[in-house]
Amino acid sequence: GTGLLLAALSYAADKHRNQRRKDAEASPYINHPIALAVALSLEGGIDDIPVLCAALLHDTLEDTDATFEELQDCFGLEIASLVAEVSDNKALSKADRKSKQIENAPSLSNGAKLIKLADKLCNLRDIAACPPADWSAARKREYCLWAKQVVDGVRGVNHGLEGKFNEAFERLVGNR
Ligand code: NDP
Ligand code: ZN
To answer: What angle do CA 70, 154, 54 make, to 5 degrees?
Structure first.
């Protein structure tokens, strides 16, 4: 288990090596997949190795030259399929991708729901602590409202992480 986890971390670090997050300091991209795996493990109590590996790999299909076949060769069908489940269809427009995430969330597998929940939790935390440099308050709020719609479709999968998401959401958006 530990070996596969470290191999997934190494693969993701290599694939994201030239990418940065959108915050003012342009943080290394890999910090984000690591944050998901840490949240799942320490805050969600998740010890399922395929889920933790897929969390580390969750943005490789969408944002790098990684392919499903390569993920399957390196990590097996279960992990490759989890990553595919949480990846947007890049043939769609940005707006369609956003509405598809809301629409598809309830029918994801449990593992994919956990990764979606952790992804939205970590992105809200980033918006609070190190937001995209050029985002207005209105844009941050719009993102939080969309993320909550996705999370509403995966509720029930992990009480602890859901509570943390709710806290992050309330802190950013409040009860307005
Ligand atoms: P997003 O609005 O989806 O950008 C957010 C994504 O960027 C996150 O989901 C996250 O994705 C990633 N990300 C990277 N760094 C950070 C960070 N520091 N904090 C939080 N998230 C980060 O994508 P786009 O910027 O491409 O915009 C597309 C959408 O935004 C369109 O639907 C458009 O309509 C809308 N829009 C709204 C505007 C407004 O003012 N309201 C203005 C312009 C566009 P991941 O988890 O994959 O890393
Ligand atoms: Zn992500």
So the answer is: 20
